[in-house]
Amino acid sequence: MKNLLTKYNQLSKNHKVLVIILLSILALIILPKMAVFIALGFIGSYKFIKSKAKRISVNVLLGIITFFYIIILIGEQLPDTTNTDNPSVVEQVVSAISNTEQNQTTSSEEVTNSTSAQETTQNSTDTTKSSELSFYSVTQVVDGDTIKININGKEETLRLIGLDTPETVDPRKEVQCYGKEASNKAKELLSNRKVRIETDASQGTTDKYGRMLAYAYREDGLFYNKHMIEQGYAHEYTYGTPYKYQSEFKTAQKNAQASQLGLWSPSTCNGDTTSASTQTSTQTQAPTPPPVTTQSSGSLYYTSSHYTAKYYYPEACEDWKGLSPTYLKSYNTLEALLSAYPSRTKSPQCK
Question: Which pTM does this prediction carry?
Fold first, then answer.
């Protein structure tokens, strides 16, 4: 600072005035408020202070003041990157974080709303499907595989596809083994209930007796046809051509047989339901097959009591010897055989 004052004093009067003017202009540009007072100070020093030494001292003091104010102002104008209290920076950071959180919240809400909308749509679809299903009152349970239902005021007989229960109502036959149990179970499951029916194009709409062919489902979703088989109240039954649920029903029968449920139990029918109920309830051993003879007298007729059997065999036709001894039945006359098994026809191998 002394060097500056020394150099300033060494200047000529005109140069000193020029320095003062330049400092004043700079002060006006940088320090507009303070510059007025400083400028007035310089002007006043020349006008009111007659002593040259005093005037120089005043001008030097004003110059020093101007210099420091310039330094202070420049410092204020420079950006402070380390100052976290800078309102503009803080506001920008807070704004950025706020925007990010808002976007995340919006995205989350959109996902939630989308999921909710999908669930609502799905529930609406399920409700619509449920409301579109038609359920019909069961008016009568004929037996385990035949029921009657009311369709729009008209009673229809329904033969259930894929199962066969022991006979209880056929006037041509005695009540078969486990027939009453199957019939009672059917009444327990379907009496005073409503069912939804499903037809099967592979089986047609009616059988040869004019009965509707269909599957039956209760309102609670119980698949009646399959349930009767898997609980051992019915055999799986394929009539002519495979049906839609054949593989499922066959599997259900295998499981029931393996577990010895219902008619598969050795204490009931052991799988053979063709014999009379009173006989099978006490007879647990397989019937003894008739002796196999090599002479063909032609007086006997043979068939199998198995539920899948279709043919009978005269004694002269030796194909009967291939029948399982467990189910082998013999009759003295053809009339007696057909009386017990009206659906049997003569084996094509015997013609």
Answer: 0.46
